[in-house]
Amino acid sequence: MGLFLIESSSLQGIVDSKIALDQKAEQLQASLEAQESTLIEIQVSKDFTRSFFIVESADQETAAAGLKEAGIPVELVKDVRLVGDDLENVKQSKDLVNYLVEWNLPENLTMDQYLARKKKNSVHYEEVPEVSFARTYVCEDMSKCLCFYDAPDEAAVKRAREAVQTPIDSITEILTEDK
Q1: Does residue 75 contact residue 117 with C-beta atoms inside 8 Å?
Q2: What is the pLDDT of residues 20-76, one digit of tens each?
Q3: Which strand ranges, in their side-by-side order, compose the sheet holding 170-173?
Q4: pLDDT in tens, 96-110
């Protein structure tokens, strides 16, 4: 079984509240279970224009098929590696994250180089105590990574990224409660 990031450009018209999202997640989980796959987590922007699904499945096609069956458009599917947390912990935990940072990784950066850099720089998160780093998913093809944070605001996330000397290609505020 592998982990897959599946992105959908929009859930607008599919869900319009946290309650509706939770109901869609239940439907999606049932669809994925029928495919012998597991929904690990869903993170959706506050305006429902971007959504990120992490699915444990045998392969990309099976993971994507579960979303399509649930009526969710699939824009991107990538093999990912979880960094900064344990998969069993993520499955059981309902950590609050309210910001997602995307970083398009530089060409020629290897996974080993990325992991060494992350280990070296992560100690600097303590310089921004109001921000909690939760976890990162790194695409196995080294195209990008998604980092999840709990922070009071976007400015704090930017300060945390500066502290760990890591760029930001985009920041998405995540839906955390019903509108």
Answers
A1: no
A2: 888 888 889 988 888 899 999 999 998 889 999 999 999 999 999 988 888 889 999
A3: 38-44, 51-57, 2-8, 76-83, 132-139, 144-150, 99-104, 170-173
A4: 789 999 999 999 999
